[in-house]
Known about the structure:
Blueprint: E1 49-53, E2 59-63, E3 75-79, E4 84-92, H1 95-102, E5 112-117, H2 120-130, H3 133-146, E6 152-158, E7 164-170, H4 178-188, E8 191-196, H5 199-206, H6 231-235, H7 242-245, H8 260-267, E9 277-278, E10 283-290, E11 295-299, E12 309-312, H9 313-324, H10 375-381, H11 422-437
Parallel strand pairs: 2-5, 7-8
Antiparallel strand pairs: 1-2, 1-4, 3-4, 3-5, 6-7, 9-10, 10-11, 11-12
Helix pairs in contact: 3-4
Amino acid sequence: xxxxxxxxxxxxxxxxxxxxxxxxxxxxxxxxxxxxxxxxxxxxxxxxxxxxxxxxxxxxxxxxxxxxxxxxxxxxxxxxxxxxxxxxxxxxxxxxxxxxxxxxxxxxxxxxxxxxxxxxxxxxxxxxxxxxxxxxxxxxxxxxxxxxxxxxxxxxxxxxxxxxxxxxxxxxxxxxxxxxxxxxxxxxxxxxxxxxxxxxxxxxxxxxxxxxxxxxxxxxxxxxxxxxxxxxxxxxxxxxxxxxxxxxxxxxxxxxxxxxxxxxxxxxxxxxxxxxxxxxxxxxxxxxxxxxxxxxxxxxxxxxxxxxxxxxxxxxxxxxxxxxxxxxxxxxxxxxxxxxxxxxxxxxxxxxxxxxxxxxxxxxxxxxxxxxxxxxxxxxxxxxxxxxxxxxxxxxxxxxxxxxxxxxxxxxxxxxxxxxxxxxxxxxxxxxxxxxxx
Length: 438
């Protein structure tokens, strides 16, 4: 037993992604576990078990029989059948015991050994094997199509030494792939292993971003997939829209189950939908409810928004008890309290309305083009009761400027005014003379 009194412990943060403290942040792996016992003295000496992750969601648990000084992030060579595999250490210490128990590894044969920390030769073989994965997946899909198999090969993973390949496939029905294994073994010259996965597991292996803007839960932390039904959406009053309820895997979103328990607990305090609240004025039917806020809205029309009243769930239960006793309240609101009506906001409350009273300047109408009449004709047309010309303050009459002979009269727009034809002026004189005789 070591003495930890005089030892200096250094808390390191080995995560290059996320906000985990000494945990197994995303890095390049998935489904990492937060190690909250990392800085506890003697944590790593409690057990020799370590957790090692491989590509995407595959992980395994191994015995550190050689007592290597392993830390999170170390690349190690572990026992495989056949040969060895290359993985990354993601968890050490006593927390691995709980993970082994959670994984239901009851047999001791399922827990293999850690050989060594990976050497450069091991890493060269590892990178060479990984570089063939994509091409193998594309070629295997074509082989399965040629054989007429109703299956989809979603991913291929080579073992660290390149002696084995795992093919992950999706199929709705049972598939006889015995002939496929023979063709794949002859084509790629490796040992073949087939693993069937579901749509959620495929989304977890591929990864991506969900509608919430964050990385998929199945690709980051979710290990066990629980069945999701539309009943979870009904409990939370979510619209049953298949396009919005489906995730990247075309199945119902796993996050629909996250808050169901809270909604179920809160819904127990809400009144039943079938109960009708009776008041002296009328009957009220449940229109909508806000479960988390504890508010219910009632309407006088069944299924129609008419005379809506929003009250608390406690008040609704109190009215139900009153109706059972044969009593009817005056209104849904609490006794002695009037409903506060929201008045519309007056946008001109502080505005100066007199600004609309300002007189507008009248626009001058443009003068039309009228023929000029001689002076004698104007005097004959002037009626007898016509007012004399207005005088100015100096007592003189305003004399209109007469146009000079030989020059056309200028208008306000500086354009010469047309002179009337002599025949038209003569006709006007004769017409005026006839009117006077009459």
